[in-house]
Amino acid sequence: NAGVMQNPRHLVRRRGQEARLRCSPMKGHSHVYWYRQLPEEGLKFMVYLQKENIIDESGMPKERFSAEFPKEGPSILRIQQVVRGDSAAYFCASSPWDGDSGANVLTFGAGSRLTVL
Amino acid sequence: AQSVAQPEDQVNVAEGNPLTVKCTYSVSGNPYLFWYVQYPNRGLQFLLKYITGDNLVKGSYGFEAEFNKSQTSFHLKKPSALVSDSALYFCAVRDTDSGYALNFGKGTSLLVTP
Question: Do A43 and B100 touch (CB under 8 A)?
């Protein structure tokens, strides 16, 4: 079991470019979460998805950020027109379906580190 | 609304001594509480969780945590620290009334010295 796979591990973009971060959940997991970790801050929840469905995007910035989890393929976090403040580590986590009990454990990937020049 | 606070940015302890990493929470419903550990350049790893039942929860690598409802705390403890325990520790809470997001504290850096 390869666990949660994120790529790229490191991504460098210039201001105004687009960044795409990919996450393949653990085998058997149907739920994906995206978090952002900034220096001196904790992990900030961004979005929670099931396949083809966004469940909770209350942590997503209103502009430039979007996420999807298609029927086939990885979940993608997309940041358009990146700015320096977007530089951070972006972590993906996955979990199995637990009937909405809220007790499920998240399995995290190693993260994608975005640097905006 | 839900939130979690880790009042200490860093905890230093000598190897072999007991360690405590503090966490307090605020929720409107019932809390689901978690501890995760992060090693450098790695993702977070699950240590333990409290959902219901016994207030003392035992987890991985000899760690345990005690749920204290009156003090709204969920401190992480280990009787005898190892140098290899040095890492960043995150407390997290999910409020049963507030949806799906697992909210993390800012993290506490634990340094265990030989």
Answer: no
- pLDDT digit string, tens, across residues A39-60: 777 889 999 999 899 988 989 9
pLDDT tens digits, one per residue of A4-29: 999 999 999 999 999 999 999 999 88
Residues of chain B with pLDDT under 50: none
CA distance to A33, B1, B43, B102, per residue, from A91 (Å) = 8, 23, 7, 13
Q: Min CA distance, A61 vs chain B (Å)? A: 15
> Using one digit for the tens of pLDDT, what is the confidence trace for A51-107?
899 988 989 999 999 999 999 999 999 999 999 999 999 999 998 876 656 677 899
> Hey, how many other C-beta atoms are within 10 angstroms of the C-beta on A85?
9
Distance of CA B100 to the CA centre of its chain: 19
Q: Is A58 on the interface with B (CB under 8 A)?
A: yes
CB contact under 8 A, A43 and B44: yes
A111 to B51: CB separation less than 8 angstroms, yes or no: no
Angle made by CA atoms A39, B100, A100, in degrees to the nearest 5: 145
- Cβ distance B45 to A93 less than 8 Å, yes or no, reads no
Number of CB pairs, chain A paired with chain B, less than 8 A apart: 58
Tokens in use for B4?
């979690």
Residue A117 pLDDT class (50, 70, 90 cuts): very high
